[in-house]
Amino acid sequence: MSHSIFSSDAPHQEASNLTAFAGNDLDRQAEHRDEQSVEKALQRDGTHILAFTKEKLVLKHDGQVLDPLFARYELQELDPDWDEAILLGYRKTGEPRLAVPVRIDAEELACQYKPADARSLYRDMLLDDMLLGEVAQGVSLIRWNGDNRFCGRCGSPMESRIGGYKRVCTACEHIIFPRTDPVVIMLAIDEERDRCLLGRSPHFPEGMYSCLAGFLEPGETIENAVRRETLEESGIQIGRVRYHASQPWPMPHSLMIGCYAEAKTVDILRDEAELEDCRWFSRDETLAMLERVTAPSGHTSPPKGAIAHRLMRDWVEWNS
Amino acid sequence: MSHSIFSSDAPHQEASNLTAFAGNDLDRQAEHRDEQSVEKALQRDGTHILAFTKEKLVLKHDGQVLDPLFARYELQELDPDWDEAILLGYRKTGEPRLAVPVRIDAEELACQYKPADARSLYRDMLLDDMLLGEVAQGVSLIRWNGDNRFCGRCGSPMESRIGGYKRVCTACEHIIFPRTDPVVIMLAIDEERDRCLLGRSPHFPEGMYSCLAGFLEPGETIENAVRRETLEESGIQIGRVRYHASQPWPMPHSLMIGCYAEAKTVDILRDEAELEDCRWFSRDETLAMLERVTAPSGHTSPPKGAIAHRLMRDWVEWNS
User: Fold this and answer.
1) A127-159 per-position pLDDT tens digit
2) CB contact, 8 Å: B234 with chain A?
3) CB–CB of B11 and A223 under 8 A?
4) Interchain contact, B22 vs A221, CB within 8 Å
5) Which one, A141, A288, B90, B221, has least CB within 10 Å?
6) Is the pLDDT of residue A1 over 90?
7) Model-level pTM greater than 0.95?
8) Calpha distance A255→A247 (Å, rounded)
9) Please, are residues B158 and B176 in contact by the beta-carbon 8 Å criterion?
10) In the prediction, which pLDDT does B320 show?
11) Which of A2, A149, A218 comes nearest B137 by C-beta?
């Protein structure tokens, strides 16, 4: 009797679904997008809109409660740009969800509104997982549409089509589609000495170490990108690579691809332009960082929900 | 004693490295790219250049031999656009490799030159694996640079920087980086009945069936994209997803992410706009397609080197 090609983790346990921004379960109806998508959705009952000023989400706040969901009529005073409205999809209840850019700057918003970027929404846990996932989708598309108002080929204005999922040049008819940037993020493991490789960017909070990471480049496999980035940043040579999990990362439109990487060497040669420190951590040290135990070292890991946290946690618990 | 987190496959056996376009092992020196990168490379001995007219590679042909490698002086008669030259990287021998767009159209090339797109180079096996991988990197960057001559934010001209890996707006200083589009491609497996799900696009060669595939969208994990695309195209519901391999796919700048997908249902509801057929194939039928045995059915798989071929082959051989 042959055994399954799949692991024993059900989808709700899969590592990707345990990351922040992954909770989006909108029915995108990708194959039914057309020029009427937005108008049809706006005519449905219970339509709710996420409003964005540049890449910041606008939240209504009424005393204690922060609410990002606007009804159509509520949006009017923020000067929405309906030509750039995006249909994100439909909730299981049938409720349509849109993202709409508004022309009021964050600084000019009245006091009942609060702008927040995706990173703060995640860090300060201001939204539930599902809504945070919808915001991730919204931010990425708002940014991509905003970055492509003019045609890269001829410089003429472009127009939004099929609910924000396509742009077409008004002069040369060049067509473009939304962009997602794959990033490899990896935990290099020295299995013989039971330790993992972590680094510190200068812009990290004090004491925090995380996995190395970098953009996958055109013409690379995931595995080769993991090997190249690890070598560039740390001087460590990598053998085998194992995919573990992925995460939407709306800063502004990345896909984090999380992998384990087999360290074949031990001597670190840090890229000083990228990292202010890079070192090996034992399994016990890594566990203490994840648990945010006040260790004498004062080191911490990225917070729960970060794919780096997931890679570290799942390695610590591997075979333990 | 704990067992390794890595599989037993060494890097040279890993599935990704067995796909076409993955053979690129240039040292990209990504962290050392600067405004002098191209000029420095051109001054080295043994520099070779891949020449592109639009997205087509220009090959020199001299009787029987097709040669895509131009010395700097050989390129002059094709009217190269040196401002848009791209430094791909360095071979292990130290030989620099560049990609340069030329202003002569494919139709106007003299008879000693032959233009060829990446798909034909792969299908007709005109180049060795390493060179094909370098061409993949070149095509993707040539296309991205060509698609972004003007700024998407303000419509002003953009200029190439750091050897083709960055563009900057001459007016608003907006900066952009190369684009790679993640695509999920998956073999859905009905383990109980030991069969896999394959479909036929109308533009496939006669008799060919392949894995379902589609672009990953902003705000999705890899696993959720696999579930969404399979459901949209075939009506089959997917449970667990297992990453298997990735492949650079320069048509023009995709990253194919190959996965196995656990089929939870059996009744196919085909997306008629996308597929002209979609059906289950037994392990024996799949093997016959891979071996290109003339079966009564006349069905074939994509050729060796295609990631779909890899997914099918590695499933057939799983536990067999």
Assistant:
1) 999 999 999 999 999 999 999 999 999 999 999
2) no
3) yes
4) yes
5) B90
6) no
7) yes
8) 6
9) yes
10) 60
11) A218
